[in-house]
Amino acid sequence: MKILITGRHGQLGSELHDLKDKYLQHEMVFVDREEMDLSNSEQILEVLNTEKPQIIVSAGAYTAVDKAESDQELCDAVNHIAVKTIGAWAAENNTKVIHISTDYVFDGTSEIPLKETDTPDPINVYGLTKLHGEQALRASGANHVIIRTAWVYSTYGANFVKTMMRLMSEREEIGVVADQVGTPTYARDLAQSIMDIINAPEFVQGVYHYSNEGKISWHDFAVAIKEIKGFSTKVNAIGSDAFPTPAKRPNFSLLDKTKIKEVYQVNVPDWEVSLQEMLSKL
User: Counting C-beta atoms within 10 Å of the first and last residue's C-beta, which end of the chain has fewer, N or C?
Assistant: First the structure.
């Protein structure tokens, strides 16, 4: 099967690239901005018409959450219009689409793990464009799987884990937000789950949630990084209001993973196990 993956150099794209030698039965084609600029619909169609994939993994996205507030046009082009273009092509060409979305489609006011059936209500531009992308893909008629994920990190790219390690190596004391709750997602685990879906006996269309198991705050996450790596930095718990950002963040991002586990039998490791695995690779 020919699989086209967007976002080659992103965290998820890089992890999928690392897995490709395990799946030699598939031809996996990776593209990034240079080969397929997601803000350019004509170029997207050109690449799709040349490659003619049977599955598209839509992993590329505009993910600069704060910058998106002032860069709305480009953010919408990449997170919404590009997905609409991919969906329309996929529907016409009988191609399946696995699209990666985000917990940011929700407002963060829930107190129980978020299900796929819960009503989205984004509170920032990034979340709104990702929701519009989901809606466009569903409306396209393409056979699709949408995976909402949260707090993604990896040995690749820039992310919270690497930022914490840098700050802890430079400072004696740091403050980390303690009133935003969720679960991190090791991009390697998500990449493996995507390959499990591709290789499943049946492609069951719909929206799914995936992150690692557990429930923590960003502060808990930072403390775990500190303990695993043996830093002596003091990690203070602070409120979101002490760390204002251009884009509002949801206070609650915990995703219910029941559906993806039942339908696709994917493995969902505990967040701490995955964090230790990632840190051992750095």
Answer: C
